[in-house]
Amino acid sequence: MSNPVYLALDLPNLDAAKALAERVKSHVGGFKLGLEFFCAHGHHGVHEIAQIGLPIFLDLKLHDIPNTVAAAMHAIHVSEPAIVTVHASGGRAMMEDAKAAAPNGTKIVAVTMLTSLDERDLTRTGVDGNAHDQVMRLAELAQDAGLDGVVCSGQEVRAVHKRWKDGFFVVPGLRPAGSATGDQKRVVTPRQARDDGASVLVIGRPISRADDPVQAARDIEATL
Ligand SMILES: O=c1ccn([C@@H]2O[C@H](COP(=O)(O)O)[C@@H](O)[C@H]2O)c(=O)[nH]1
């Protein structure tokens, strides 16, 4: 089985990101490039990391009117990413148009409820109900829109997987036992997420901010 860990390269410096990616490449399955990276380094930065030879996950979390999201999706064809994110709360038409505009072979997955949010946050955004219900509702919408899968926390992935057998599930908010959670609120261990049906395990700071990132990546790999 290939390594399901995608390292989040949330670093402002391209040379530092490239150096980290080179160091850990034998112990992860791909690289996740998000807003911080893309805003700073654009397609050039994506190309530089892609040169290392592992799949690229562009975590842009697109969220706008359908026409704008489809145009943005066309603009990223040049990078041929393996995975791209949109926000499920952008609605069904937005997700349908995003999928239609995506490169062939790129998986489009929808963010349901950010792992940095808990139920109090949900209430404050005007949404009634718990995290489980919110994730299930948006996962169903994403499935109806023809997407490949969703982003959810490890606390919901088992339930989503049960309802969407052939879905593709991206799980961030992962922390090895005993490590700092930081701003993440709905957290599980990488092993728990994998056992519950995650397709991709997104891990950033537990590796990138470790004293020894290679050892941290190896330690996580050994638990899977
Ligand atoms: O719900 C979400 C969606 C995306 N992310 C992204 O994953 C990584 C997690 O980084 P850590 O350092 O392991 O916390 C980060 O790039 C987020 O933008 C998420 O955390 N939650």
CATH architecture: Alpha-Beta Barrel
Biggest sheet character: 8 strands, parallel, barrel
What would CATH call the homologous superfamily? Aldolase class I
Number of domains: 1
Uncertain spans: none
Total count of helical runs of at least 4 residues = 10
Succession of helices and strands? EHEHEHEHEHHEHEHEHH
Percent range of helical residues? 40-55%
Main β-sheet, spatial strand arrangement: 1-2-3-4-5-6-7-8
Q: Could you say what the CATH topology is called?
A: TIM Barrel
Overall shape: globular
How far do the termini sit from each other? 11 Å
The CATH class designation is Alpha Beta
Mean pLDDT over the full residue set: 97
Gyration radius, in Å: 17 Å
Secondary-structure-derived class = alpha/beta
Number of strands: 8
Which ligands accompany this protein? the ligand O=c1ccn([C@@H]2O[C@H](COP(=O)(O)O)[C@@H](O)[C@H]2O)c(=O)[nH]1
Portion in strands? 15-25%
